[in-house]
């Protein structure tokens, strides 16, 4: 009998590699370093004496051996995951609720695909988004008006658990004929005499203010709008400049509706591109429910597949 080195994690790795399209993104999906993932794949290839995929191929191309193991993975991994969910339902009873609160105006672009995928996995769990924008989503958890909150900071709170989602770049948006469009990157001082267009939220929830403008003591003129498309229309009309997540405006940039530039934050010699982070916050008791943990995993996986320029935390 041939002793196979194949384990469930190897099959999960092959699926992640196919879905993510390259080693780097697959490693993020699996919460591994790229080196560890390469070592794992090489060990399987060494055992069988065959390559599983074509190195440096884009899009990724699997060899006949890789395709055969992928076929096995597609049969085994979903069956095991479904069995685990069934056992979890037996342990806790069928059904449940998952009320989601968000403090991010652009969250819906990636949250809705995650919810659609989750419904297929947990059809008995009632999903709902707490209506309206909430400046204090953590307060909704403590008052039992929400079960999970999407937040931009993992503030220390002994009664709340934070699960990391992803990091993303925040870019400055300008009209193509704006004088600053000739720059490769903007610094805090470039905003001094501009009108900053933002969502109508507290300054503590705006990364451009917290990370860039406030440390530099700069307070530009302000204008607000509830809708992303309205903000971009104002930018295109030279009414001001804005800063938004790169993934939230990727479609508009592809159509050249506005221009995007890097925003630098931090001391001059240690400056880095402005970025933001997102976390899922839950009360400890709710976080222990199997479907809560699975929803966090689903958000991470669908975001990695659907959003450009993000990095899983």
UniProtKB/TrEMBL annotation:
Gene Ontology cellular component?
cytoplasm
Which ranges carry the HTH lysR-type domain? 6-63
Which one GO biological process term can you cite for this protein? methionine biosynthetic process
- Where in the cell does this protein reside? Cytoplasm
Q: Which UniProt keywords apply?
A: Activator, Amino-acid biosynthesis, Cytoplasm, DNA-binding, Methionine biosynthesis, Repressor, Transcription, Transcription regulation
What domain of life does the UniProt record list for this protein's source?
Bacteria
SUPFAM superfamilies the UniProt entry points to: Periplasmic binding protein-like II, Winged helix' DNA-binding domain
Is Zinc-finger there in the keyword field?
A: no
InterPro entries from the entry?
A: LysR_HTH_N, LysR_subst-bd, MetR_PBP2, WH-like_DNA-bd_sf, WH_DNA-bd_sf
For this protein, what is any one GO molecular function term? DNA-binding transcription factor activity
Query: Which family is this protein grouped under?
Result: Belongs to the LysR transcriptional regulatory family.
Please give the PANTHER family that the UniProt record associates with this protein: HTH-TYPE TRANSCRIPTIONAL REGULATOR, HTH-TYPE TRANSCRIPTIONAL REGULATOR METR
Q: What is this protein called?
A: HTH-type transcriptional regulator MetR
Taxonomy of origin reads: Bacteria, Pseudomonadati, Pseudomonadota, Betaproteobacteria, Burkholderiales
